[in-house]
Amino acid sequence: MKRLSPVLVVVVLTVVALVGVLGWFRMREMSSLTKPHHVHTASGTNYVVQISSATLGRVNNNYLVIVAARVENPNPFEVVLRRDSFVLLDSTREYFSPSTNGTQAALIRLPPGGARERELFTFAVTPDSFNGMLAFMAGHQNFVQIKSAKPYRPQLSEGDFKSFHRLTW
Question: What integer pLDDT is reported at residue 135 of this predicted model?
Fold first, then answer.
């Protein structure tokens, strides 16, 4: 039986360690997007927002960003949230209001102790919005980063959509 060269063992262990570190960084980045964010308002209303994904699409030569989130009400009373209080902010400090067309109601009603498992917030954005960071405002001064500061050039055809579960896009 042949013995393995010590150099080969070191190379294999190094590759395994690098793959492990890369996996750890990706899991950490994914969990930073999907961690729950506790929002406290001045009126005493509390709720929890947890983003599950951000989807980029192209429709009618415009770009859409769709943020899918779980919205939870830990209070013993009903909470009514205005959809237009959830906005998208780009790196140039331009605010984008969510669409309330179609099936998306202007108000989000959460029963006591209840949750909306997949609330969708749709934003029409400009191509310049992808030059830097994008953040989702989930409550007054509570920003959740959904895209890294690295510029992104969308390569989408009309009607194409692409979902992201990490910040690097």
Answer: 93
